[in-house]
Amino acid sequence: MAEETVETPPDPTHEHDKLVERLMRHREISREEAEKLVVEYREGRSSDIDPELLEDIDET
Questions:
Q1: 39 φ, ψ to 5°?
Q2: What span, in angstroms and rounded, lies between the C-alpha atoms of 36 and 45?
Q3: How far separated are the first and last CA of the chain, in Å rounded?
Q4: 10-residue block means of pLDDT along the chain (60 residues)?
Q5: What Å distances lie between residue 17 and 4, 6, 23, 25, 34, CA to CA?
Q6: How far apart are CA 24 and CA 3, in angstroms?
Q7: What torsion, rounded to 10 degrees, do the Cα atoms 32, 13, 60, 18 define?
Q8: Least C-beta-crowded within 10 Å: which of 17, 30, 36, 38?
Q9: Taking Cα atoms as reference points, which of 46, 53, 48 lies closest to residue 26?
Q10: Cα distance between residue 32 and residue 26, in whole Å
Q11: 42 vs 15: CA distance, rounded Å
C-alpha cells in the first residue's frame, strides 16, 4: 500500500510565534509588546514591522 503524503497548511500559531520571537530579538522588546504589534499588524491596524522580519512568514 502506497503512503499518502498530506500537505498540512502552515500553523498560524507557529507563524505568529515565529514573528513574535523575531520582533523580540530585533527590537529587544518584551513578548507582550511583540504580541501586540503582531496582532495589530494582522488586523491591518499597523504596519510598523520591518519587512525583513516578515520573510518566510505566511500572512494568511
A1: -60, -45
A2: 11
A3: 35
A4: 59 88 96 95 88 83
A5: 29, 24, 10, 12, 10
A6: 40
A7: 60
A8: 30
A9: 53
A10: 15
A11: 11
